[in-house]
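Give me structure tokens for this 256-residue protein.
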Amino acid sequence: AGNENGLESEGVETYVVTGIVGDSQDFYVCDNTKGLEVLGLQGNAQKIINFNQVKWGVEFLLEGDGFAKWDELSKADFNPDQSNIGTLNATFFHPGAPAVVNINNQGTALGETSLYTPRPLFIDGININNAVSLTVNVADGNAIVDDINGDMLTSLTIAAEGDFAVQQSLLTTLTKIDAAGVMGQFNAVLDNMDGAFELLASDNGMTLVFNDGFAAAEGTIIDGGAGEDSFIIAENVVVDFTNAALTDIDSVVMQN
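Here you go.
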């Protein structure tokens, strides 16, 4: 949509991409996209939307298929046991922006999979450039994000009505990870971080997986909250928490 000069419109607050031809689509905005508040992607599993030249203050929306159960879909978008969403790539025009991504199932609470387990939202990826902070808000059920990235991100805040998981390793540039707003289980993978960081979990449980070597920098804080919290350390991986302040970590599992 638009070209490198940007889409010109007035009075349209929200644009949601519902169909992508090919593997990816560019969407350029500019100062003449007047009144813009939200840029979104609905569905389109395994595809990529690139929002470019975004102004500070514009938020991003990721929407699932809008169905509760796996067998309600007339035609599944990828795996019917998930409410699937493609990859969001967004670049702010000026560096240093605060970014907000809102994820939901179009207001429909998620139900069960074909195996009678909770059907989650599944997002292929979130990549936000020229932003220093990212807040992710999730409604309508559990959410799994394969990967979260950004070229300047140092702060990640998550608020979710259910469980929230990130499958790939969190960015090593993060200095603050605030998952206190996750109302279910929080699951993430940590690699060796670039420096000291603070991770705050909610009182509803957390699992951190360490697949590569990890040595906590001095000043690192990991607060598991009052829930059931565990570290899972992959086989032959060496971890060192000597310089970290650990609070309310209930178990450490060594895989072999």
